[in-house]
Amino acid sequence: MDVGPRLKAWKPRSNHQMVVCIHYSTDFEVHRNWLAITHSLPISQWYYEATSEWTLDYPPFFAWFEYILSHVAKYFDQEMLNVHNLNYSSSRTLLFQRFSVIFTDILFVYAVHECCKCIGGKKVGKELTEKPKFILSVLLLWNFGLLIVDHIHFQYNGFLFGLMLLSIARLFQKRHMEGAFLFAVLLHFKHIYLYVAPAYGVYLLRSYCFTANKSDGSIRWNSFSFVRVISLGLVVFLVSALSLGPFLALNQLPQVFSRLFPFKRGLCHAYWAPNFWALYNALDKVLSVIGLKLKFLDPNKIPKASMTSGLVQQFQHTVLPSVTPLATLICTLIAILPSIFCLWFKPQGPRGFLRCLILCALSSFMFGWHVHEKAILLAILPMSLLSVGKAGDASVFLILTTTGHYSLFPLLFTAPELPIKILLMLLFTIYSISSLKTLFRKEKPLFNWMETFYLLGLGPLEVCCEFVFPLTSWKLKYPFIPLLLTSVYCAVGITYAWFKLYVSVLIDPPVVKTKKQ
Amino acid sequence: MEKWYLMTIVVLIGLTVRWTVSLNSYSGAGKPPMFGDYEAQRHWQEITFNLPVKQWYFNSSDNNLQYWGLDYPPLTAYHSLLCAYVAKFINADWIALHTSRGYESQAHKLFMRSTVLIADLLIYIPAVVLYCCCLKEISTKKKIANVLCILLYPGLILIDYGHFQYNSVSLGFALWGVLGVSCDWDLLGSLAFCLAINYKQMELYHSLPFFCFLLGKCFKKGLKGKGFVLLVKLACTVVASFILCWLPFFTEREQTLQVLRRLFPVDRGLFEDKVANIWCSFNVLLKIKDILPRHIQLIMRPVCLVLSDIPFMSTWFLLVSTFSMLPLLLKDELLMPSVVTTMAFFIACVTFFSIFEKTSEEELQLKSFSISVRKYLPCFTFLSRIIQYLFLISVITMVLLTLMTVTLDPPQKLPDLFSVLVCFVSCLNFLFFLVYFNIIIMWDSQNGRNQKKIS
């Protein structure tokens, strides 16, 4: 496992440099604005600045990261660092931004390398391409979602996921303090990772602070180590102090939090993330249409603004009860509780932690408030680590990944990007399915007929939405139908994968042996 | 084949790289009044769609031959006509007579790039896949790796999808021709090759080996029996295909002559075509591999021996061929795709063919040569070392020159300094390859047919 995989690790990145000059999404302007804010203004202004609509809504470490980047940026194009240069997009600016993503991906590559070291997996054949480590490295480095979101749509998820994967790897390697530290740092880079914080918290408490178990696997209360708890707490506290300290001193914490957690946005994003609420909305729509047709509902009482008009505002449901942020929070908590309980009562070491993490991420995706479809990557990337271990996990992974990746298609909607997204999606899907099938060829088939049928249905769906629909007359009357169809179809798949994973976690027998740490 | 999904993945990678390169600039983008090859192709669609066939190659008020007049054989013209019909369906402004000159838009660029991709997908890529599948005595994995490396060859991608041309069509047809004749489908093979010649007259460079090979086959079968029948059939196929392509132009002598004048402009300089010729001939020659039957090696030996599996030299050569086009690529603002595709190609070759482990004398087919030299110079044991050093020097020179061309401005008195240096360095490399291939040919032919078939 020497030169080959490392060289292969390089290959995918080189492709990205060619997509440098194509797409200009709003995220470019967002990050340009943040470069400008952090470079030109003092810290006290960072979370108050509102010249542009894209205000700073990530935690302070990310702001510092943009600050450091801005010092490199000034050698590319000084103009981009002017806060008033709204929508400034010279070619040098774009070049700098794209290269910064590629450069920061180095951390992601390193994290993948560390994760591959931790994965044992079956040894099917002597071929390099059939080793689990190789398959895992390709699945992570060539991940379609990450490629699309980071390098075409433009974000910095590569290095953030690198941090997360690195912290997971450290926990696998039993370097718990480092793992905790990395996760704490990650939280202060992007607070979306709060979704998986319960998994970390419970695992560290249960498996690190309690140093030994009884013979049947249950908790041994007297093995509680105060030293460990306190050191963990100290790490988290220090990191948070470093991050939020300056803003606490300036009495700006409420402002910072209001920026970080804007609850004024609607239940769903403009394009519904394929979660439970997408199905809920669709059901509501169907019922209201039926209700109108059967004259159960009064057309005058229905709110004019529909949830499908594509704007990010708050709307009411017509037939089913409306959903409040509190309701989503409760649903999410209920959804993650069983996995947390499993992690506490039948710990299975790092693997159990990983499953719980994935379930937390998925459950938050399923029931969260104003979830963005990109959040599915939070579940897909860690799931890759499990996929090369067991056939059952591989099957769930493939359904989740294929559906999740397909749901990202609406992010790229221009004509030049159409071949790219289709080609890359095909590449990743064919590779992942064929390599995992080969890896687990001695076990029962990965998919049953229903799942195969569902996955194959994505092809005709894509053809209908992107090729057939624009040529029909419905395009003007109901322009949201492709998005709705995509959202609902993917929601079905993702819900199914979530359910299947949950079942496999709940019915897994606990590991019965004394663990000494 | 058992690894069909790997082959699919490799083809998809090839397509992805192609489309990604096509998102970049094309030749003559935004540069009136002449623009570039992209405008030439668009103009040909305009001409072939709006004017009757008899006027395509003639100078007239509607067809100014000075502005990108048609100078490829009729098949290119028919291809342009086909594209023009599609263009008319989407947006007639793209090919409106006179008014569409210099037409540039995102939608039009998308359309033009798609035509290249579709032509590639239909003609060139299947030929490459089938060709590699027919290679003998190598494992399936090596065949797939072969496809990948051929599909990743930067020169063709950059010229077709960057600069903008349809080389993949003529190369694809030529490759089909090679496949046909080596699988004993001589008629289909010669038909394919005729189509290649009728698409781009450059393919005439490869016609001689083809002709010799087929003639040899006829001789082998005996000129008094089956051989003669084959000869007649081949002649009929060639004549028929030419007549079919040139039919509208055979009605009048003046038509035929005018087309020939456009195809072979003897008053034009040689330099314009120099780069393309070299990479084209060598490139395709290198693709024909050991699938040809042994008994023909007497005639095809020069080609065969040049083309047997010497991954180190082939990779080196293909890198130089891409580098030689640097001035052109820089003019089209294709530096980034050039660098990236070259790196990807190099990494693919290194990974899959382990080229750096195949630099021994035997791997480079220089064993018999060095044995002969050692008769006079017993200490001549460092040939492969020399070659490795030469490779290093060559690569360093190419990288340095690229960096210099990109970052520095040439001195005022010598504005073409860097282009000339690039040409000079490439020429030196090509001369080296010429010597190398000649050495192989001469020394191995002395060895007779006893050398083992190298896979």
TrEMBL record, chain A:
It is found in: Endoplasmic reticulum membrane. GO terms for molecular function: dolichyl pyrophosphate Glc1Man9GlcNAc2 alpha-1,3-glucosyltransferase activity. Its main location: endoplasmic reticulum. Its EC number is 2.4.1.-. One of its GO terms (cellular component) is endoplasmic reticulum membrane. Keywords: Endoplasmic reticulum, Glycosyltransferase, Membrane, Transferase, Transmembrane, Transmembrane helix. This is Alpha-1,3-glucosyltransferase.
From TrEMBL, chain B:
It catalyses: an alpha-D-Man-(1->2)-alpha-D-Man-(1->2)-alpha-D-Man-(1->3)-[alpha-D-Man-(1->2)-alpha-D-Man-(1->3)-[alpha-D-Man-(1->2)-alpha-D-Man-(1->6)]-alpha-D-Man-(1->6)]-beta-D-Man-(1->4)-beta-D-GlcNAc-(1->4)-alpha-D-GlcNAc-diphospho-di-trans,poly-cis-dolichol + a di-trans,poly-cis-dolichyl beta-D-glucosyl phosphate = an alpha-D-Glc-(1->3)-alpha-D-Man-(1->2)-alpha-D-Man-(1->2)-alpha-D-Man-(1->3)-[alpha-D-Man-(1->2)-alpha-D-Man-(1->3)-[alpha-D-Man-(1->2)-alpha-D-Man-(1->6)]-alpha-D-Man-(1->6)]-beta-D-Man-(1->4)-beta-D-GlcNAc-(1->4)-alpha-D-GlcNAc-diphospho-di-trans,poly-cis-dolichol + a di-trans,poly-cis-dolichyl phosphate + H(+). The keyword Transmembrane helix applies. GO terms for molecular function: dolichyl pyrophosphate Man9GlcNAc2 alpha-1,3-glucosyltransferase activity. InterPro entries: Glyco_trans_ALG6/ALG8. Keywords: Endoplasmic reticulum, Glycosyltransferase, Membrane, Signal, Transferase, Transmembrane, Transmembrane helix. It comes from the Eukaryota. It is found in: Endoplasmic reticulum membrane. GO terms for cellular component: endoplasmic reticulum membrane. Pathway: Protein modification; protein glycosylation. It is a multi-pass membrane protein. Its EC number is 2.4.1.-. Its main location: endoplasmic reticulum. The chain crosses the membrane at residues 110-132, 144-161, 227-249, 298-319, 334-356, 377-405, 417-443. Residues 1-22 form the signal peptide. Dolichyl pyrophosphate Man9GlcNAc2 alpha-1,3-glucosyltransferase that operates in the biosynthetic pathway of dolichol-linked oligosaccharides, the glycan precursors employed in protein asparagine (N)-glycosylation. The assembly of dolichol-linked oligosaccharides begins on the cytosolic side of the endoplasmic reticulum membrane and finishes in its lumen. The sequential addition of sugars to dolichol pyrophosphate produces dolichol-linked oligosaccharides containing fourteen sugars, including two GlcNAcs, nine mannoses and three glucoses. Belongs to the ALG6/ALG8 glucosyltransferase family. PANTHER family: DOLICHYL GLYCOSYLTRANSFERASE (PTHR12413), DOLICHYL PYROPHOSPHATE MAN9GLCNAC2 ALPHA-1,3-GLUCOSYLTRANSFERASE (PTHR12413:SF1). This is Alpha-1,3-glucosyltransferase. It comes from Sapajus apella. The lineage of its organism: Eukaryota, Metazoa, Chordata, Craniata, Vertebrata. The gene is ALG6.
